[in-house]
Design brief:
Elements: E1 4-13, H1 17-22, H2 25-42, H3 48-60, E2 63-64, H4 70-74, H5 81-94, H6 111-117, E3 121-122, H7 133-138, E4 141-151, E5 174-183, E6 187-195, E7 212-219, E8 228-236
Parallel strand pairs: 2-3
Antiparallel strand pairs: 1-4, 4-5, 5-6, 6-7, 7-8
Length: about 240
């Protein structure tokens, strides 16, 4: 039986204002502990990668609790539907909250729960000034993923023939890379590149590198257009194995 080797390297280059304000290792440890406890409470069947991505986003760009939507509150992964509804009802009845301590009066929001929420939320006026494009770019999150997949045993199709030639130009490895930039719900951009097994890689008939490229750009920066999305652009090359 063939054994598959899969190596995944994930680099998350994230700017955490929470860390910057505290500037202590204790603050970093506290946030990591909170995320870990949330994952433990949600159980093994949850999508840990998605949860971590949401929490990292809110740690970098805390959610303004006074204008948060139901969907945004659910992405905190800390509140159930009943708690979300009670929080929304409270804000509608009493107006914007001024601090996390005020939320102690909301039924179902315990001090322990609010302590976990605190790094991911903020309290600003409802009529808060929208972020400028330079601010969106400054406080966005960069993510780079690189993955290599291949077989331990060399397949027959990749072995050299008697005449010294090989059936395929490239090696038997599959390469996958992805870069993504995310700034809240306002800007999302990314590019994905893949190389299939057997395809040449920056050589031979495929000097441009990968044999598959795709890209996307999504903008929500104007009150005139709710959302502008361009992509995915797709470029293919190579032998098409």
């Amino acid at each position: 039986m063939r054994r598959i080797l899969q190596h995944t390297t994930l680099f998350l280059l994230t700017v955490f204002p929470f860390f910057a304000r505290a500037q202590t290792p204790e603050a970093t440890t506290q946030l990591e502990s909170i995320i870990e406890s949330i994952l433990e409470e949600l159980g093994e069947e949850t999508d840990a990668a998605l949860i971590i991505e949401d929490l990292e986003e809110f740690a970098a760009n805390p959610l303004n609790i006074n204008i948060a939507t139901r969907d945004q509150l659910s992405r905190l992964h800390l509140l159930d539907d009943i708690q979300i509804q009670k929080l929304i009802n409270y804000l509608k009845e009493f107006g914007p909250a001024l601090s996390v301590y005020e939320l102690n009066t909301v039924d179902g929001l315990t001090p322990e729960l609010l302590m976990k929420m605190e790094p991911f939320i903020r309290f600003e006026p409802v009529e808060e000034k929208p972020r400028s494009v330079p601010e969106m770019l400054k406080y966005g999150r960069h993510e780079f993923l690189a993955r290599t997949l291949g077989t331990v045993q060399e397949p027959r199709g990749y072995k050299e023939r008697d005449d010294g030639t090989k059936p395929y130009e490239g090696n038997r490895a599959r390469y996958y890379t992805r870069y993504r930039f995310q700034s809240g719900e306002n800007i999302s951009a990314g590019i994905t590149a893949e190389k299939d097994p057997g395809e040449a890689f920056f050589s031979g008939s495929n000097k441009q590198g990968f044999d598959f490229y795709s890209a996307h750009l999504s903008l929500k920066i104007s009150p005139v257009f709710e959302n502008i999305t361009v992509g995915d652009f797709v470029v293919r090359s190579g032998q098409g194995l």
